[in-house]
Design brief:
alpha/beta; 7 strands; four-stranded mixed sheet; GMP Synthetase, Chain A, domain 3; about 180 residues
């Protein structure tokens, strides 16, 4: 008789650590990372377990797909991977994951975050610390910015006027979080 131990779901602290280290965004589109330079991601809904096989499959696909990879997430115990072309969709499907066509790659989204940070530094004053979080989402091809409510309008208008993201959609949420200067790199 074989004894199978059920895999425990990640606790809140462990899940938060995973998301902070690897996530670009959360399933609901809310900011999940406070990192000023988020990277390609794997995220999961809080009630989902993170099967090590799915995590390994994501790493393999991320390496195989390179710049065609946008984001991955686990939903209903299946790995979902957003990619930027049909050939990559076929690779994802053949590997046993659920493919989604994305408008922008993780690299494109990260480059846009870098341009936002550079713009923010150039503004100086309170604007230099008014964006608290930058969260790119390969799922919907956007970047969510958590912004000090006192400067939300000014930042929204300035980024739009200067076309900082080159057409990548920006979403804004008010933030009461701590001010932190945009990365200097």
């Amino acid at each position: 008789m074989s004894k199978h131990m059920p895999r425990p779901a990640l606790g809140g602290a462990a899940l938060a650590a995973v998301l902070l280290l690897s996530a670009c965004g959360s399933e609901a589109g809310a900011p999940a990372s406070s990192s000023p330079t988020p990277s390609a991601s794997l995220s999961a809904a809080p009630h989902e377990t993170q099967d090590p096989d799915l995590l390994q499959l994501n790493e393999t696909l991320k390496e195989t797909l390179g710049e065609k990879y946008s984001e991955a997430w686990i939903a209903e115990n299946k790995l979902h991977v957003a990619v930027t072309d049909k050939a990559s969709e076929a690779i994802v499907t053949a590997a046993g994951a659920v493919a989604h066509l994305a408008e922008h790659s993780a690299a494109e989204l990260e480059a846009a975050v870098g341009r936002i940070m550079a713009w923010q530094r150039e503004q100086g004053g309170d604007i230099a610390t008014a964006i608290h979080r930058y969260v790119p989402s390969g799922r919907d091809g956007s970047i969510t910015l958590a912004v000090d409510a006192a400067h939300l309008g000014e930042i929204r208008e300035g980024l739009a006027a200067d076309d900082v993201t080159g057409g990548i959609t920006l979403k804004f949420v008010e933030s009461a979080g701590p001010a932190s200067p945009a990365s200097s790199g």
